[in-house]
Inverse folding.
């Protein structure tokens, strides 16, 4: 199949690093962590998180924003920025049936579901909100965004755990390739910082128990002990090259390649030889029509867990050698689960656009088992402005995206 680059004409970000692309890019380039002690998690085994800064509900531009779960609010806020960036006006489409919305999530409206379950137990069935499912179902961020912007094309919500947001962007590229849409609003969103979710991850011993919140998320470091949970959304506007040209749009970057795979190995642990990761990266290279030597930067999944960082690094080294610059932005943002892949894809697109890659925050003593050119301390100017972003999820679900000018 011939390469099909999809134009990225708009980016929107709502993350712990800031509300908006400018604040996000400044924060990740600085390598300054956003993790803090979270009062809402008091007395749990882990009390730290990476939260999105407060924003006025009026910024959502919808009546009754209280009817939207937090994960859907993030998605709409990021969508509005992405559309402004792309120079597109919601509800004023040439043909609304050619505008698709694909927004993935790993968990959906967890806060709504937990609150209403507690209501059921404490007050009884008659006090459960009638809005529980319209707010809590995993597909509702995509559905509510489509309603808010008047998009009548394909609309769905892929769920591939921590690869959900990246999967959405890859599937958006394929919708454009197939001719089913001219514009795709694609990305991921998550609002999982609840006592239930944090307790569940803590029981798995997946979360960092570092008492210093600011240094808790430290991908690739020899002393890493788990990830810090985060929240937020990343949205990109994708268009066919022809459609972007027809309206004189600025193209920030292009999705050159998309690859997906399954480990078929374990519910939570990656394949010990990095088989699934390697398959996804190779598939993305084939889709882009590129050799490994073309990649100038890898935005790693880099969770700051012992197992993932070593396995991913081994797969990366075997495919690209030790020369490719690698970093993980989770040292700044924490791990945003189903939104992580979309947010990190946006960072990779920005790196390709601007020729600069962010460092890995809190990386002081690289793990000797990780033999890669790890970017830390300061941003790195890129020799080749082609960036690969990796996302790997529970269930062994993997996605890789390649961005270039």
């Amino acid at each position: 199949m011939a390469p099909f680059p999809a134009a990225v004409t708009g980016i929107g970000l709502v993350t712990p690093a800031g509300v908006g692309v400018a604040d996000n890019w400044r924060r990740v380039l600085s390598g300054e962590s956003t993790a803090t002690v979270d009062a809402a998690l008091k007395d749990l085994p882990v009390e730290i998180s990476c939260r999105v800064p407060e924003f006025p509900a009026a910024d959502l531009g919808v009546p009754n924003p209280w009817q939207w779960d937090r994960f859907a609010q993030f998605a709409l806020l990021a969508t509005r920025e992405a559309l402004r960036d792309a120079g597109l006006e919601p509800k004023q489409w040439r043909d609304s049936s050619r505008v698709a919305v694909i927004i993935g999530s790993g968990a959906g409206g967890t806060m709504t579901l937990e609150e209403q379950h507690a209501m059921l137990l404490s007050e009884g069935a008659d006090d459960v909100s009638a809005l529980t499912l319209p707010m809590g179902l995993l597909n509702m961020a995509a559905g509510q965004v489509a309603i808010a912007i008047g998009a009548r094309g394909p609309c769905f919500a892929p769920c591939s755990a921590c690869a959900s947001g990246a999967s959405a962007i890859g599937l958006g590229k394929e919708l454009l390739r197939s001719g089913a849409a001219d514009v795709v609003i694609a990305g991921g969103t998550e609002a999982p910082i609840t006592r239930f979710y944090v307790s569940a991850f803590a029981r798995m011993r997946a979360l960092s128990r570092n008492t210093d919140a600011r240094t808790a998320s430290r991908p690739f470091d020899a002393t890493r002990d788990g990830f810090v949970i985060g929240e937020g959304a990343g949205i990109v506007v994708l268009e066919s090259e022809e459609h972007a040209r027809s309206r004189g749009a600025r193209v920030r970057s292009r999705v050159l390649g998309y690859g997906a795979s399954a480990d078929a190995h374990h519910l939570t642990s990656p394949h010990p030889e990095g088989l699934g990761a390697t398959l996804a990266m190779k598939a993305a290279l084939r889709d882009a029509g590129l050799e490994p030597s073309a990649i100038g930067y890898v935005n790693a999944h880099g969770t700051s867990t012992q197992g993932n960082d070593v396995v991913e690094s081994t797969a990366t080294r075997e495919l690209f050698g030790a020369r490719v610059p690698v970093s993980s932005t989770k040292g700044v943002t924490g791990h945003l689960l189903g939104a992580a892949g979309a947010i990190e894809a946006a960072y990779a697109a920005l790196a390709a656009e601007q020729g600069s890659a962010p460092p890995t925050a809190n990386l002081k003593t690289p793990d000797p088992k990780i033999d890669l050119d790890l970017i830390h301390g300061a941003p790195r100017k890129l020799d080749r402005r082609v960036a690969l972003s990796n996302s790997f999820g529970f269930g062994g679900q993997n996605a890789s995206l390649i961005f270039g000018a």
Summary: The longest strand covers residues 6-15. The mean pLDDT is 96. The domain at 6-246 is CATH 3.40.47.10 (Peroxisomal Thiolase; Chain A, domain 1). The radius of gyration is 20 Å.
